[in-house]
Write a structure and sequence with these properties.
310 residues, alpha+beta, 8 helices, elongated
Length: 310
Amino acid sequence: MLIGRQAGAPEMEELEQGLLMQPWAWLQLAENSLLAKAYITKQGYALLISDLQQVWYEQVDTSVINQRAKELNKRLSASPEAFLCHLDNLLRPLLKDNAPHSEATFSCDHEAEALILRVRSELSGLPFYWNFHCILARPSLVSQHLIRPLMGMSLALQCQVKELATLLRMKDLEIQDYQESGATLSRDRLKTEPFEENSFLEQFMVEKLPEVCSLSDGRPFVLNLQSLYMAVTKQEFQMGQKHQNIGDPQTSSSAFLKGIESQLPNQPEQPVSSAPDFSAPQKEPTGTSGPIQRPQLSKLKRKKPRGLFS
């Protein structure tokens, strides 16, 4: 059972969909290397964390935010939306550049089958604390955010390789035609051998496969493949919307995706709410280089076909 799932079903569904559209970020917290993604709105947040061994998840609404804020920050008084805005401001730098907010510290603890991500910062001159209580993610969630997107990415990359192999064979035929017409290279060092796909694949398996299969802490996946990951999840989301018989799927899908894309890390940061108004109660109870030049040939080259993702 998801924390905070009992109320506000439409808002919780938005959190789930919004989280799916977020890229993964690589976090280095003390001795813990983690992959994480988060989505925060005025109604709550959804957080997914993995150490490549297990996946943890938390999704809460404003009622949980309000209760936990009172337990951890007895000297602060603010609305749940204001606390969510502050959490968003703290998480954005961490998920974007692996650099926490200048006044925030993050730590991670494992407790039984849970993972606790602790945040400590300052707010309006007072300490601010927050604990993300993440439980083991259900298998369907792991499939939705990792297994299915990774399968889609693998198929997309395989298709890209085939397109590029076809393009190389066409280039070889083009060069052969130039050579038979008497064209020569202006620089011998630019000469290449005809592309042999089978030889290339065999050499790749021997020389490159051991290197690319070293997953390490997941950082290469985050640094190099997030554009493709988001393209695949976006496509799957749109396909799912088309199969739903609710309202106008095309319109609702495009509107939702437009809102999600405006909050992605590579976009200008937009807070989830206006500037929060925090105040301390009057009585505080005791108690957080340049392009490569092409060979100069005597004939004009035909227009080059474009490959997948080019």
